[in-house]
Design brief:
With about 160 residues, this protein is an alpha+beta fold. It has five helices and six strands.
């Protein structure tokens, strides 16, 4: 029987980086840190809000999306984790997105972010009160950036 995404060792490890980095920057927890790392990975994957992240590549690739993120962007895990994160925004919104990521890189985080994103099928949605934070491992090495938000509104398309 194949493992669920959150049961894979690399996702358990990555979940700890996401949670530890958030805790370090905000002095609060993204989720209740009860149980083992695998139980925390499951809680994060099934959290009632979006959590996404990308790595440190020159053109960063998405490397994590919880269940709600996968549903919102209308992708499966395999497709999601092969997508350059810039493609989550339409071309017209990419410059603004890049500026926001640079601000987060300098400060360590940005909170109260809003912006328009687009799913794999072209469905647009507005993010409200998002938080973006830098990720680092236990040796303080840069690992990428993550975002979370619980408020979004679908935008009607003009067909």
């Amino acid at each position: 029987m194949p493992q669920e995404i959150w049961q894979q060792q690399q996702i358990i490890t990555w979940s700890q980086i996401l949670l530890d980095s958030f805790s370090h920057l905000f002095s609060s927890e993204l989720i209740a840190r009860n149980g083992t790392p695998i139980e925390q990975a499951k809680s994060l994957f099934f959290a009632p809000f979006v959590v996404v992240s990308h790595g440190t590549e020159a053109d960063p690739i998405l490397n994590y999306g919880n269940k709600i993120a996968l549903e919102l962007w209308e992708m499966n895990w395999s497709d999601f984790t092969q997508t350059p994160s810039r493609l989550t925004a339409e071309p017209i919104n990419r410059e603004e997105r890049q500026k926001m990521l640079q601000q987060a890189a300098k400060k360590g985080y940005i909170d109260n972010y809003s912006g328009i994103r687009i799913s794999s099928t072209g469905q647009r949605f507005l993010i409200n009160q998002g938080t973006i934070w830098n990720l680092s491992d236990q040796h303080n090495n840069n690992c990428g950036q993550a975002a979370t938000f619980s408020q979004w509104k679908m935008i009607a398309t003009n067909n």
